[in-house]
Amino acid sequence: MRAVPPTTTAPAPHRWQFIRVGGADQVIFRTGQDIVRLRELDQKLWVALACPTRGIDFDARTLDLIDADGDGRVRPPEVVAACEWVCARLRNPDVLLQCSDVLALEDLDAGNADGARLIEEARRLLQIQGKPDSATLTLADIADRGELLSAMRFNGDGVITPETTQDDAVRATVAEIMRTHGSVPDRHKETPGVDRARIEAFFAEVQAARDWHAKADASDKTLMPLGEPTLAAADATRKVQAKLDDYFARCRVAAFDVQAVTALNPSPEAYDALGANRLDLSADPIAELPLAPVTPRCVLPLHGNRINPAWTEDIATLAERAVTPLLGARDELAETEWLAIKQQLAPLQSLMAGRPDNTAASLPLAQLDAFLRTREALLALLHDDEAAETHNHLLVDLEKLIRLQRDLVVLLNNFVSFKAFYRREGAIFQAGTLYLDGRSCELTVQVQDTARHAVLAGLAKTCLAYCDCTRQGQKMSIVAAFTAGDIDFLFVGRNGVFYDRQGRDWDATITKLIENPTSVAQAFFAPYKKFVRVIEEQVAKRAAASEAAGQGTLTGLATQLTTADQAAAGAAKAPAAAARTAGRVDVGTVAAIGVALGSISAVLVAIFGKFIDLGQWIPVALVGIVAAISGPSMLIAWLKLRQRSLGPILDASGWAINGRMKVNVRLGGMLSQTAHVPPGARRVAPDPYRERHGTTGVAAAVVLVLALVVLAWRMDWLDHRLPAALQHSPSAAASQAAPPAPSS
């Protein structure tokens, strides 16, 4: 009979709770299990799918710890990973809802391997800080981690400084490594030191040099006639051997034929070319000259001014390390003596062909052995320092845990849902509050590039004002959404004050404006305001043109008066004709103007007559006229207000908003609050500078009364309301009975 495999029951689906706000369903984080099971929440229900790590009001260090790939953006997989990481190390994830930066050690899960290591590291840290009995760890304790590590001998950065060592020989080795292989700064102490790569490279070179020295046995007189100093003699000889061979070869040719002496020495032209430039004794043109003047004697002076200046030091070294020890002290070196030196050093020169080419090869054998004796001690120090890196990782984990305990729920309420924004608790993307034009705008977002931001943010159907904010040499750009009040006095260049989330005040100046309606009521008056504005502009233009014409006439008259004596002769010839020409009026123009005014008057009278003929439908006609004028504007405003959303504004700032995130009229009225006198306040005196509208009000009342009288007359309301005695009086009857007068 086949064995039936045991069945595993899948965990019950998590029961989420949502709230409908901003036109989207948004999850509510009630318990720690909502955070633990976040992976199960469909990402289509997340409000945001990405946000930047900079430019928002959120702890940047926390975002960097969540941003696993370090690309400067936080995405859902990283948020889910952070939730699961922190919940796996806590006994009860409900503590995350407290948003506290104090970690109680009892909240860590001791039954979990990661949690147990964090408990042990937390107690170690408290012990170092002199608080062994404390049961809590704060973010401030972790924030001072750099100072703590810099005070420790081993800080886990894998760098050994001279101060790390406690032995003079090891300290000397570290100094030599820094001299020959460079240094690397200590990550916590900011002092130079050496790392594993430099230490291993140095000892590899020292060991190679020591192995080569083992082949050069100082007791072998054939190989090392001078013992250990033979190496220095061979080095000095090898450095000048080619130059000495060249010099003695020239001298041999000169001894063969005296006439070759001139050709073998530098020519005057060569010295002329050399003297034409700035002289440098170590330069190649001087070093290429012979070691000394070529003569048939075949003798090289070892001292004095007859040696080539570029080779003076090398020849002196040769004399000190090779000539004097092998041949004795002398002032000149003959060719035969030079050949004897080469013959004695020939065996060692062959061995030196395989000498390591590094800085350690030139060191004495005793010093190489001293360095090698410190190798084990130095590597032990390096091992101890690298072992401390495990504690560094645990300290970073403790910092991450405390920061997530404090900030994770805040991030979730500004990423998975927008609870902080719709409850007006201050969303992380809100930069502060802008005060301008008698309003306070809370929906402000920091902007990096105004031109690029405006292209996408314009789709939000919101009135947006881009502002440059300055404060004590600092500069910042923001965009503020005006969602209530009118926009009549919003224009580029207007100034206000911006308060950031830290309460600092900035000078704000509007640099770009995207106009959109803020309410249907504002759209109702918009056509009339535009009409009045056009009339004002036209009147201003006409007034400016008239003023310019008047100024031109006055200028011409002044010119005529100041030049009257010069124009007297010309003016006397035809004064009457000029006067008649200047004062003549074109009769055709006057007639045309009269016809035009008559036509306009006739049209206006006809329109007014038709309007009066409507009778009781006149109010309906007035409503229709108003609807025809304001209706399109109100309809457009209503459609735009229904489409007004937060998404494009945040998308342009680097977010990835998953829903539309509507900003309706009610929410907009809270985000942009206009000025109101507080309740209970009273005005103690009227405005002494208020506008006087007495005459205008009387004229408007008279026009209204006349319109009502005309309406009543046309509707025959007056006939029905005359007194009965007046209607049946004899005079009235006589007037009714009298026949009509004959027409002429």
Measure the end-to-end span.
Answer: 135 Å
Overall spatial form: elongated
Major sheet strand order: 13-15-14-17-16-11-12-19
Give the amount of beta strand, in percent: 5-15%
Number of strands: 19
Let me know the largest β-sheet. Answer: 8 strands, antiparallel
Helix fraction? 40-55%
Number of helices: 30
Uncertain runs are 576-583, 720-739
How much is the radius of gyration in Å?
A: 51 Å
Mean pLDDT: 81
The structure class reads alpha+beta
Tell me about this structure:
With 744 residues, the chain is α+β, with helices and mostly antiparallel strands. The chain has 30 helices and 19 strands. The strands form six sheets. An eight-stranded antiparallel β-sheet has the order 13-15-14-17-16-11-12-19. Strands 4-3-18 form a three-stranded antiparallel β-sheet. A two-stranded antiparallel sheet has the order 1-2. Helix 9 packs across helix 14. The longest helix is centred in the last third of the chain and has 43 residues, at 520-562. Residues 576-583 and 720-739 have low confidence and may be disordered.
